[in-house]
Amino acid sequence: MKTTRWVYWKQIFRSKFQASCLKAKLEENWRGGYELPPWVEIKKLAEEKYIVRYTYDE
After folding, report:
1. 45 phi and psi, to 5 degrees?
2. Is pTM, for the whole model, over 0.90?
3. How far apart, in whole angstroms, are the C-alpha atoms of residue 44 and residue 34?
4. Is 55 helix (H, G, I), strand (E, B) or coil?
5. Is 15 helix (H, G, I), strand (E, B) or coil?
6. Is the dihedral of CA 32, 38, 39, 41 positive or negative?
């Protein structure tokens, strides 16, 4: 059974809006291609900071 691997974006965002813009961009890039789209999530860190992560399948 394959396990889902998460890739974390290297930047930490100060607002959820900034993180959601990156999330939309990542989802859009895969929609036009031939690959399966990744799951993209926004995770909240302490002190109102957010990080974006997406799946990576080999």
Report:
1. -100, 180
2. no
3. 31
4. strand
5. coil
6. negative
**Residue length of the chain:** 58
Cβ atoms 8, 20 nearer than 8 A: no
Residue type, 50: Y
What's CA 56's distance to the chain center, in Å?
Answer: 10
What pLDDT score does 36 carry? 64
pLDDT digits (tens, 9 = 90+) for 3-58: 778 888 899 999 999 999 999 888 877 655 656 667 889 999 988 899 999 887 66
Q: 């926004």: which residue's tokens? A: 42
Non-local CB neighbours of 52 within 8 Å, separated by 6+ positions: 8, 9, 13, 19, 22, 23, 26, 40, 41, 42, 43
- What are 57's two structure tokens? 């399948």
